[in-house]
Structures are given as structure tokens and as C-alpha cells.
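SAMPLE LOG
Freezer: B-3
Tube label: C17
Construct: single chain, 61 aa
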Amino acid sequence: MLKSSGCNWSLEKYNPYPGVMEGVPASRDYSGGFMVKLMQKDLGLAMEAALASKSATPMGH
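STRUCTURE (predicted):
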């Protein structure tokens, strides 16, 4: 697919099929990494700010 019109970013840089590329989630059994921890921290900060300002977070629960 990389040599045809089906070539795309996902196949070239972040292949979703296990064993094709090292260091991508598919080759690590889709285990979370730093980015998951960073997102969790940021979402926690956003929820704290929402609670402090009494803002609604209908999709944050």
C-alpha cells in the first residue's frame, strides 16, 4: 500500500498493524505511554479549573 494510492500517514509513520514498526502502540500491545499520562494530567487540571469556576463539564464525567 505504501507504493500505491493507498499510501497515507498512518501506514508510513504510525502503522497500526503489530510488528511492522518499532515503538508504535501496535507493536507494544497498545499499552499506554507518556502521552496517556500527559493527557490524564491535563484533563485533571481542566476538571480542577472547571470545578473552581463552577463551569459545567457534561462530557468530563
